[in-house]
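Narrative of activities, Objective 1.

The group set out to show that a structural description can be obtained from nothing but a protein's sequence at a throughput compatible with the screening campaign. Below is one input-output pair from the validation batch, recorded exactly as produced.
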Amino acid sequence: MAIDTLRRAGLFLVLCLTQALVLNRIHLFNYATPLLYVYFVIIFPRSYPRWAILLWSFAMGLLVDMFANTPGVATSALTLIGLLQPYLLELLLPHDAAEKIKASAHELGLWRFVTMASVLVVIYCLAFFTLETFNFFNWQYWLISIGSTSLLTMVLIMTIETIRK
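Output recorded for this entry:
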């Protein structure tokens, strides 16, 4: 259990620093910004306590907000998907799945993992950009930002999953 917590803390730090120092400066065509730290919440295993998922999600969102100067936006959106992740994982798992199954493309299968990750990423981007703009006067920009950021984030997540395999 202590090894798992140390690995998770290491991944937490790596993703947070990568987002703060590198990815926050990338804005493709002024629409898409990769939000790789969402991957941290997506990969929680089935047996992980829900309160701990919410706590980790809140802490990651808080640190990202501090580095990106978006007060409360990433925190609330990441806590939302931290709340939804266990339920979506249960929904996509087969009935005879092991209790300690991890949310990865290798263990879930590519189709189930892509489905779960893309739903969570789209919900995250929807909540994030809705809270960030807080108006619908420029709804085309809002929709393009959600779609392009979701697509770019999913490409990065699938790249990491391929490398981890």
